[in-house]
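Service request form, structural biology core

Requester: graduate student, group of Dr. S.
Request type: structure prediction, single chain
Budget code: on file
Notes: please return the result as structure tokens.

Sequence provided:
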Amino acid sequence: MKNRHSARAHRQLVPTDARSAGVSGAFALQVITEGSAHSAEPSFPGENAVPLWIKRRVLLLNVTYEPLTALPARRAVVLMTCGKADTVHEDPQAPVVHSEQWAVQVPSVIRLRNYVRVPYRARVPMTRAALMHRDRFRCAYCGAKAETVDHVVPRSRGGEHSWENCVACCAPCNHRKADKLLSELGWTLRASLVPPSGPHWRLLASTKDLHPSWMPYLGEGAA
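Core staff response, request fulfilled:
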């Protein structure tokens, strides 16, 4: 009998039609995670408990290595199974997903085989995650570890909720500043407030946890 542990080595996946009857748009994945070789885990959320590997996120790159989004692991496996994407970085800590016809270790980064045109968007939406990345998780006033978001010109005094008026801030500075202006406190900002640009910032704006292998593709904001 072939040793199941040899399945750790990635190989080209072969689509399976297992349980595909009645499923529109995609075939079902019947997987067996390593350590439970004789018990099939549910293919879809809602069929008993959701397997932990499905909750993992995988960075999807365009064929040009431009970051596109962070996919659920199950979707990433489907793209690889259909021959639409290839592994760029493996994750030694990730589980191995098995079926009767193939086996693959859930990767951390995959790359599309064909180019996908992304509509141009002029401005990156401001979210708490993206703001923290822009300010490198440091207080804009004192440089300590940031825990909150502060409006430089308080909203009670007409300040906007925008890239040009919001900063990462530590709790003590936020409490001390309250609804005052910087000129009233004699404070200055450690850096200019500018909106970030680049396709990777959209991913940073929507993703909280970043895998270390993603960093080379996400620019300075992820550092």
